[in-house]
UniProtKB/TrEMBL annotation:
Gene3D superfamilies, A to Z: Metal-dependent hydrolases (3.20.20.140), Urease, subunit C, domain 1 (2.30.40.10)
Domain Amidohydrolase: 45-239, 426-499
Descriptive protein name: Amidohydrolase family protein
Signal sequence extent: none
Amino acid sequence: MYCDLIIKNGFIIDGSGKPGFYGDLAVSQGKIIEISTKIEFQAERIIDAFGLTVCPGFIDPHAHEELTVLSSGRFEEYLRQGVTTTISGNCGHSITPYSSDNIYKYMVKKGLISVKSMEQNKRVGLAWADFPSYIDVIRNKGTNLNMGFLLGHGTLRWSIIGDTKHRKPTAQEESKIIHLIEEGMEQGALGISTGLTYSPSKYAETDEIIELAKAVKKYDGIYTSHIRNYLGTLEAVQEAVTIGKATGIRVQVSHLTPNCPEGFDEILVARQQGLEIAVDTIPKSSGHFRRKDRLFQYLTTLDSILTSEERRKLIKRIRFKEHLTVINADDPSMETRTIKELALEGKMSVNELILDLLENDRHELTFCQGGLIRQDFPGTPYPNNIAQNPLVMVGSDRVSGEFDDPYAWYELFRKGSFPLFISLCRQSGVRLEEIIRRITSLPAQQFRLSNRGTLSTGKSADITIIDMDNYSYPFNPETDYKNPFTMAKGVKYTIINGKAALEDGIIKQINSGQLLSRNGKVL
């Protein structure tokens, strides 16, 4: 028998949670056709995986790459972690409804894309009229990753009733939103996401979300939520559980902080009571690094060239500004120190110091919002009830910022989410096979990606081959906090639908990624 590819002599972990074994795997026409201890087929290509671990491609259930892919479908930072599939449209932000003009306006207003990037995209014709034509744009450009998309509640609500409407939608407005949800689900969306700490999603009461979730449930879609943290983390988790129980919809709690282990317990109890629910967490994160010309990106849609008076007004609106950390200051006495410390030392106000820094000549000066290591995702070993919880997967919450200007806005550690998660779980005594299940077949089941998530015959050949002893990402921010290009190490091959996008450590733009809908459908 002849096939396209044989992977030989690897330690195969199939994603089911069962013990791994040494064997071979054969691929033909983008599908896995045979797995056994020894395969004697003839093949166009053979990869010797001796000493390496062969796994299903990892699935990132929480990414924000719907705009990044417009600029580049290369996705090196994912391929070097072994990720083959991402889910975008999270936290209530999506590329629907309506046209690209509507979406660009929303994304700029939310600070998720700069005016400069929006105008550049428009100049090169990156426009669409609706969800299907957005899919056409991405299919024509190509992508190295498989991608699935959620409908964003924030984008839907904003499109119908505006941004700051602290009220319930009228019956007519709710009917319009439900129509858009049904339309999006029919066109291939995986479900709906909320960002309940962001405007306008935060204005939606629980009953409003329940009605919308009912519309998604009819299509076997999922409800994912950046939860309403200001209620208290446990209370916000309980709201997500309430929505799931009221509708029967599958629930994904997004980027839950390990600082609230009782929230993870609540999710496990709900699952034991029959609710199909799971959770993702960020293993470790820095705050947002924003170059000084992007400090106000979330506060204004104006160009970065502002008058002193405009800057003075905007500074007053920055939350926790005294905790901003200064980097790239070209002055060692200022480096990695907070605005509060520096202001006290200089006997000036926090606002005056920020204004002085914004008006100096150093273009590269950068502010870190949230600290070099965020306290809610510190990268410390998990409590036992989190480490041993079978419903916990990793979600990077990766926002690529400006693809063509990576120093403008970035975060550390998100590009290493998968090796960091595996390391933290292994430190807590979790079997490697169980960890791999949580980042492959568990998210595949949650998002109804029925052709992915395990190494088994007939499944799509999304495969990663890893030197597991050297699979890593730097833990120490002191070595790389100025560098947004740090990548994970240890992945030798990342294979997408039977084709290697990462081959012996080298990235290839093969564009074999597919755009995924529910239950195995490819858009």
